[in-house]
Design goal:
Length: about 450
């Protein structure tokens, strides 16, 4: 599992944890809000209604006692009035701690109005016994003082009712917000699960499927190459001995011919064809038994500069400009001679694609590539040309052994190059566009500057 996927899975696990905590918190807060609302509507929190009713009832009872006393003075009635009025005064003070600010403000007004009521009731008691007119004035004074108490009782009920409505509205808003929060968290959770599924499929399942297909193709190709290699080795071995004898006899005969004679010119043609045939045999042997690379730590600039210096004169004859574009100073391990052979082959193919008057760029850059079944930092050694491009029907068979679009080609150049790069643990890829050019890339894993392969 690569590091990027581990980071994504860790981020997913963290997000799942955060979402789960968020959903849990929202559910708990919703439960707490409903419990608070239920408590607000319970009997214990309807205390204001009880206080209002009690104050109104006691005020009316005290008023009745005073009226009875005024109409028929009785010391016991007066004593009961004074006891009950003191109890009510103390009871009002005892209710203040259980009320909320808005209700407490009304209760304080009730407390002040009750004090006024008591003053009005007490001040007129002595005068009420003197005459009927004084009794009536006393009763009217008491009634006038009691009226605010009754009205304030209703106001206390209204204050409590308003607090309940505000609390209910706030709870509804809070529960609505929490509901949407839970709904949104669930959507995010489902989205995260979908993202995880896509990530796992894209980063694990799809690469495995692709790797399986590639492995199958590689196995089939290796089997094909092995069969062709055995055939090529046998044919090359059988041809090499007669070739050696032919070249030896031709050389001995050529020495006896006059340099200006037709026989000598014919011998030169035969010798050139024998040399070409020998090169083909050599390619067959290299394809059949590729040598193991002798790895060394290299830099892109030095490697590409050597190839450019070697092939620049040949390209100049064709009016082709061979340029360097070094974008990486990294290091990689490769066999210098085998890698140079691959790059020379790619540059020569690019030059043949251009023909005359063009440009080939040898580029080195650094990036990421999937090598050996895992993503790694890699060096890209590219040959880019502005030639004709590669036709679609040719692209499918480009790396097939013995397939060539050249009249005198063996069709082994790119096959040998691909096998060399594969032995280095790299890839040989290409991108082409008709009439715009082709880019071949040798992709090799990077290494430390001091890596000796141990």
């Amino acid at each position: 599992m690569n590091r990027a996927l581990k980071i994504r899975l860790a981020a997913f696990g963290l997000s799942i944890g955060v979402l789960a905590a968020l959903i849990g918190w929202a559910a708990f807060d919703s439960w707490r809000e409903v419990s608070r609302l239920r408590a607000s509507l319970s009997t214990g929190h309807l205390r204001s209604f009880e206080i209002a009713d009690h104050v109104q009832d006691e005020t009316l009872r005290l008023y009745s006692r005073l009226v009875r006393y005024d109409l028929q003075p009785d010391a016991k009635e007066l004593q009961n009035y004074r006891l009950e009025s003191a109890e009510l005064n103390n009871w009002i003070d005892a209710q203040k701690p259980v009320l909320r600010p808005a209700e407490l403000e009304v209760l304080n007004q009730i407390d002040r109005a009750y004090d006024i009521f008591l003053v009005a009731a007490t001040n007129g008691l002595d005068q009420a016994a003197q005459s009927e007119e004084a009794k009536l004035r006393h009763i009217e004074g008491i009634q006038k003082a009691a009226q605010p108490l009754l009205e304030l009782g209703y106001r206390l009920e209204d204050a409590h009712r308003q607090l309940l409505e505000d609390s209910l509205l706030a709870s509804q808003k809070s529960v609505s917000v929490l509901r949407w929060l839970i709904f949104g968290s669930i959507l995010l959770l489902l989205g995260s699960l979908a993202w995880l599924s896509m990530t796992v499929y894209r980063e694990m399942i799809m690469p495995l499927r692709l790797q399986l297909v590639q492995s199958k193709e590689i196995i089939e190709r290796q089997e094909k190459l092995a069969s062709l290699g055995v055939l090529a080795a046998g044919v090359a071995h059988e041809i090499r001995n007669p070739l050696t004898a032919l070249k030896a006899r031709l050389f001995s005969h050529q020495r006896s011919f006059d340099r200006n004679s037709p026989e000598y010119r014919d011998a030169l043609v035969i010798g050139n064809e024998l040399n070409r045939l020998e090169r083909i045999v050599q390619d067959f042997l290299q394809f059949a038994r590729p040598s193991e690379p002798r790895l060394a730590t290299l830099t892109p600039e030095k490697t590409l500069a050597e190839v450019r210096d070697l092939l620049a004169p040949q390209c100049e004859k064709l009016a082709i400009q061979l340029k360097l574009d070094i974008q990486s100073t990294g290091h990689f391990r490769a066999d210098p001679q085998q890698l140079k052979q691959v790059l020379i082959n790619l540059v020569q193919n690019a030059a043949e694609s251009i023909g005359r008057n063009g440009q080939i760029t040898l580029r080195a850059r650094e990036g990421a590539a999937r090598l050996g079944g895992q993503h790694r930092r890699a060096i890209f050694l590219e040959t880019e040309d502005n030639g004709k491009g590669i036709p679609a029907d040719v692209q499918k068979r480009l790396f097939d052994p013995f397939f060539s679009t050249k009249e005198s080609g063996t069709g082994l150049g790119l096959s040998i190059a691909a096998r060399i790069v594969e032995k280095h643990g790299g890839l040989l890829e290409f991108q082409t566009s008709p009439h715009r050019g082709t880019t071949f890339g040798v992709i090799l894993p990077t290494c430390s500057p001091h890596d000796n392969g141990a």
